[in-house]
């Protein structure tokens, strides 16, 4: 870790001092969120709800076809090659077991195939009912971090071509201490939009 200047003007001499100095600084500039609520979302009417997921033999077969037989065995110690090669024999029993597991609300996290099927069902429901924002690129077919970046850069370049300034703020939203900054930036964004 790099050395930093402590409050007394001296450089930190070890990693522990550096960490404590940085902690003191960040604690001093952190503002609490004052329990403010996030901005309200626009109300949306959902044409169809997803009340249950039925795992059919076809869905199990599709998940097995998507399985890479060259991967290592999962937590169940079943080799993917075995699963792929016995697909015709295991599709029906697996669909029965998976449905029973869902009915009893006991879905083991190690069942990657079931998780994949459920994820696909949820994503399909959201796509079919247009529940994703057009700006949502993660977890969507045909969209990725790359398409998000390309779309964002297109907006930036168009703005620059029209003579506008482009200001960019990069943030790691996974940090809990950033919550106040998010609330602040949302307010700044509202002010900026009103100009």
Structure explained in plain terms:
The protein is mostly helical. Among the domains are: 57-128, no CATH class; 145-194, no CATH class. It has seven helices and no strands. Helix 2 (57-65) crosses helix 4 (87-103) and helix 2 (57-65) packs across helix 5. The two termini are 43 Å apart.
Assembly classification: single chain
Order of helices and strands: HHHHHHH
- Distance between the amino and carboxyl termini: 43 Å
Tally of alpha and pi helices: 7
Q: Helices and strands: which structural class?
A: mainly alpha
Radius of gyration: 25 Å
The number of distinct β-strands equals 0
Share of helix among residues? 40-55%
Which runs of at least 5 residues are low in confidence (pLDDT < 50)? none
Residue-averaged pLDDT, rounded? Answer: 81
Largest sheet, strands/sense/barrel: none
Instruction: Give the amount of beta strand, in percent.
Output: under 5%
Judging from the principal axes of the Cα atoms, what is the shape? extended
